[in-house]
Amino acid sequence: MCLKLENRLHCFAKTCAGKTAHDSTSFSTEELLMSCLSLHSGGTDTTSNTLLTGFLYFMTKPHIQGKIMFSSEIDQVLEGKDFVTFEDRHYMPYVQAVVHESQRVANTVPLGLYHSTTRDTELMGYSIPKWDILDSSS
């Protein structure tokens, strides 16, 4: 089974290479297209919500923006390079922490999964009965 995108593309190419008109396979061009669109739309929404929240976070907390902009953390990683790679994140713990905080605060999954309480709970003066359904998007 092919789960990663590069594996799905490889499986698709391999399947198409040996496929004849009489072969029946569930792996089709339409399935590949829908998988790619699904990955793209999911990533686009999450990225834009994280960036928006990050920008709003910086506007309300300028000391954090200043610490990122004027720290040597990014400069040290960029030394001699034009751009930062995914692997460089390990050398920028403060920047990574700010990104994670932006994702935590952001509404990256507006229609997220429902949750339920496992016991009677009280939160900020509200009584929430056991097994009550909680919607994280509201």
From TrEMBL:
Keywords: Iron, Metal-binding. The keyword Metal-binding applies. One of its GO terms (molecular function) is oxidoreductase activity, acting on paired donors, with incorporation or reduction of molecular oxygen, reduced flavin or flavoprotein as one donor, and incorporation of one atom of oxygen. Gene3D superfamilies: Cytochrome P450. One of its GO terms (cellular component) is cytoplasm. Its cofactor is heme. It holds the Pfam family p450. GO terms for biological process: organic acid metabolic process; xenobiotic metabolic process. The keyword rRNA processing does not apply. It comes from the Eukaryota. Belongs to the cytochrome P450 family. This is Uncharacterized protein. It comes from Periophthalmus magnuspinnatus.
